[in-house]
């Protein structure tokens, strides 16, 4: 793997990468098949990930985190995807939810939730999407109405990653339906013993099946007013827009991990596979296809490296993050499809890694803002 060539992977990050890779191989990979069948990870996996510093790696130590930077989250996203160990929803938990709390939460909120998230005692989720509102987030219908010292929440959410196991959910709500984007807020809900809160089905997906993607229902759920993220209503849309570039980079990093793994798997496969008395790698079509794939993956890595330098300098623009997200997820789907083709019938068999890479990759073009929405964001800057 050419990871050490990436300038953002310093010696320290490289050591972290090595430790994370070993943890994934030891504690996640062996359970993936079982988790795919049960549609969620064991809760113990969260605790173990917390123990080794895989959770909240970029949250300051004073809140129980690892004190690292976004490079650490990027490494985790890359390594999990590369290992096809995507069931443990650390990206949503650490790179997204924990950062909402760190950036916008009050001091009391940070002290209350972040250390537990870092230890894996609380699993985080973010609930934006609804049955009638995905891309068009401004049109969410879930309502939070102030009543005395409480918000009363009514509505439903769908496609929520970590939805089954989540103990702490950032719920995107309307606090003032007449104000459009300015009427959107985020309320952080602790689910333990919460009356009126219900989890629906764990949704059956074509890939990433071990990740608990669920429906959530809120029926007159009452939470104290200090559950509002930050200290002012109507900031939710702004908060989402600020944080989404980070989420998009995490998706780009995952796509990069998957495309590099696909290439590795395929080069090994075609080298061994004999067709018409020769190695499949000797066929010009194979070599040209893989040369193209390698070029695309190399370009993707160079772009991601450039974006990472900008993230770490606090200078990544939303449109550049959108470019990284759509480009990398698009390329990973294309590369993996070509690689699967080179496996012939074996590529269609789930026991071959390329088949799992194929079904895992597809969602990258849809979630975190669909690729069409990414192009809208970029087009606005033309
Ligand atoms: C596995 C998985 C995990 C997810 N995890 C989460 C999560 O943790 N939290 C969460 O809140 N959500 C989550 N989502 C939801 C995800 O973010 C949405 O599915 C996504 O934003 C698209 O919304 P939608 O499904 O409602 O599609 P729609 O918005 O209905 O879009 C349908 C199609 O129309 C296109 N489209 C929409 N608007 C435009 C436009 N203006 N111009 C051109 N084309 C357009 C879209 O690109 C898409 O191709 C998850 C989804 C999946 C599949």
Describe the 3D structure.
It contains eleven helices and nine strands. The radius of gyration is 21 Å and the shape is globular. The model has no long low-confidence stretch (mean pLDDT 96). Helix 5 (90-104) runs antiparallel to helix 6 (107-119). The strands form three sheets. It has a four-stranded antiparallel beta sheet, with no helix packed on it. A three-stranded mixed beta sheet has the order 1-4-5, with helices on one face. The chain has 382 residues and is an alpha+beta fold. A hairpin with a 2-residue loop joins strand 8 and strand 9 (278-279). Residues 92, 126-129, 134-135, 159-161, 205, 213, 363, 366-367, 369-370, 372-373, 376 line the site of flavin-adenine dinucleotide.
